[in-house]
């Protein structure tokens, strides 16, 4: 928001102090406080075809951003998300492929730049989870697929995107409440989500001097396709009822966190996580 790193030496003789005597006076309003927060921006969202990714794509479009939607193989969902973005008057590019591949991740960025000529926001959101009640039942192949999807892709995408990001750009990583409280039946998944927290905090420090902010969102139980695709009917019936608000959240309730972190509203935040989790208290 400001290029000034420090303020001129000054003092006042009494508290709480007088703002009109300060030089410069504190900034208390933004020129873009009303209207689209992401006008003219281009965002890439992995796992953007459905669930949280779709809600974020639509919210970004509502705030004036064009969107690149990365997805695995859910063609119908991806086409619908593209339509939803276009219905907001914005452009959407959908790209199919597996983000476990570093080659594909590089191609994603190349196609985004080829289509829009810029990239301002990166949302690393793609994830998989495979519940196992017994730790010893986590196979090597499952472990590899979970880590390659949930954290390796974050490295690949961020690294490929970095040459195109500039001061004011934003990287937003999707973690999970499980990173903070653990999960007895999603040990490998929770481990990747914990890695995302450390990745976010570390990359934020690394890129701070470039003016590129790196933050994250750690949702609680959110009603997305990943839930019925993961759990039994009985588990789905009880999903999300154990949080203080007593219900699972909707993707639309999570998307504003991403808009905030992508916009100038969060210009003094980096290395931080927001927690739309239904009221569960966790150690941040």
Structural classification:
alpha/beta
User: What is the strand content?
Assistant: 5-15%
The DSSP helix count reads 8
CATH overall fold name:
Rossmann fold
Give a quick account of the main beta sheet: strands, pairing sense, barrel closure.
7 strands, parallel
Order of helices and strands: EHEHEHEHEHHEHHE
- Give the tally of β-strands: 7
Low-confidence stretches: none
Number of structural domains: 1
Distance between the termini: 26 Å
Across the major sheet, the strand order is: 3-2-1-4-5-6-7
Q: Class, according to the CATH hierarchy?
A: Alpha Beta
What does this structure look like?
The protein is built from eight helices and seven strands. With 284 residues, the protein is α/β, with parallel strands linked by helices. The protein has a seven-stranded parallel beta sheet, sandwiched between helices. Helix 1 (51-62) links the parallel strand 1 (42-46) and strand 2 (66-71). The chain has one domain (37-274): 3-Layer(aba) Sandwich (Rossmann fold), CATH 3.40.50.720. This is SDR family oxidoreductase. Residues 1-15 have a biased composition (Low complexity).
In short:
GO terms for molecular function: oxidoreductase activity, acting on CH-OH group of donors. With 284 residues, the protein is of the alpha/beta class. 37% of the residues lie in helices and 11% in strands.
Features:
seven-stranded parallel β-sheet, SDR_fam, oxidoreductase, Sc_DH/Rdtase_CS, alpha/beta, 11% strand, 8 helices, Rossmann fold, NAD(P)-bd_dom_sf, SDR family oxidoreductase
